Amino acid sequence: MLRSILSFLLCTISLTVVGQRTLSVDKIHEDFDFLITELKLQHQGLYQYVDSSQVNLALDSIRNTIHEPLTKLDFYQKLRCVIGLTNEAHTSISLPKKEMIKLGLSNTILPIGVMVLDNNLVLTQNFGKPIPKELLGAKILKINGVEIHEILKNIYTLLPTDGFNETARKEWIAGVIFSLLYRIEYGAFSEFKLEVEGVNNKKVDLVLSSLRLTKFKGKNKQFEEHDYDYEEFVFEQVNDSIAYLSVPSFDKSATDFESFYRSSFHKIDSLNITHLIIDVQHNGGGEEGNENLLFSYLSDSVIQKYKRVTMMDKPYQKNKNDEGIIEDKWAFKDGLGYRGDFTLWSDYYSNLGYKKPDPSLLFKGKVYVLTSGLTFSGGAEFSSLVRMTNRGIFIGEETGGTYQGNVSGYSEYVKLPHSKIEVSIPTVHFQINVNPEKEGYGVIPDYTVTNHREDYLSGKNSRKEFAIELIKNKKTLIVE
């Protein structure tokens, strides 16, 4: 628990400001205090996992490091560390549009894409001048003389996660996000000296020229990229007893969920499938209700999904006359807004207009759920439903969203008066009806299966393959 709260220490390094317009210390302090006040009035996650005295000490310590003028970008870095203390990844922070454009047009960005595989940072793309193609998949050991584990430790503090989760950060820095965060954390460079280790275990020194963000386009990609089945809505009959169902999102615009589920489970029924693999390793959530409908095909029981769904006084008073608040029968009691009891159950489909599945299509066989750090928000809530009912076996990595819920829903946008930095504060606390022994963690898999570098290079869905072999062998497999 203390590891999360102490991570703020990495945010207390003095920043050098050269040739950029700065904000005075007084104005920065005013913005800082304004944000903290708003977080305390609207964000229920701020003190959820860590004692308020420890959180306040961390906030004060960050504030006390602000003793000289800062650029908006440097102040933004400090505030990202503040956002990390909320232990809630639905909270977001944005630079003013002018600063974003300036950053995007600056010729200062590391021109690569990456992934964390086997706990190594791996080179997956290059947008700059050509480098040997055999370096695809190379481990990055150092950048500008700094060990990569030290770089990752610093950059991870800029990414808020739910509770004390570690798997989400490793997923979220993939692609070009790492390069952007590197720019924020380490400043501007015209070139980057990389020490890498290729798949042949030979070390190579690279010198890469910086790029503008506008150059990070598909036409400038040097390496071919794979498509993965878990990134698409897929139904696949694996054999006469096994089916695979990929649900990569619950976003209402992603697909016609009611039709996709009905069609898939009709096939499952007609094929007499007895083992169903449900892949949500890429599912970062979406519209509330789509996860409940999927669960409704796995259980004929209606369970209480949430203990309660609440909102603090300030956001409740602002939103209490909204149509959605009225439809869900919110009520104010003891200083909090409470959503109506009928919305707490697993057959609540929000305003999507779904009907309960045809009882003849309910799947009663064995379920295997594939998860990763990208399994977040609604994806994690679906995982919680399956875990709390012991309805399935989990394969993969800890979900990015916590087992006990999240703070999301209605967001309030706060613009800081001097820096004009904007913060999106989630205001609805969805508390899953569970009492975990260890708070602040996601659904932990029964079988831990990570994606290896070889899997990435071959386009293999290693968790799916593991599940199939587990079913076929009907015995515990050893995972390295």
Automatic annotation (TrEMBL):
List, alphabetically, the InterPro entries matched: ClpP/crotonase-like_dom_sf (IPR029045), Tail-specific_protease (IPR005151)
An example of a GO molecular function for this protein is: endopeptidase activity
- Originating organism: Flammeovirga aprica JL-4
**Mind telling me which Gene3D superfamilies this protein's record contains?**
2-enoyl-CoA Hydratase, Chain A, domain 1
Q: What is this protein called?
A: Tail specific protease domain-containing protein
Tell me which Gene Ontology terms the entry assigns under biological process: proteolysis
For the Tail specific protease domain, which residue ranges apply? Answer: 242-449
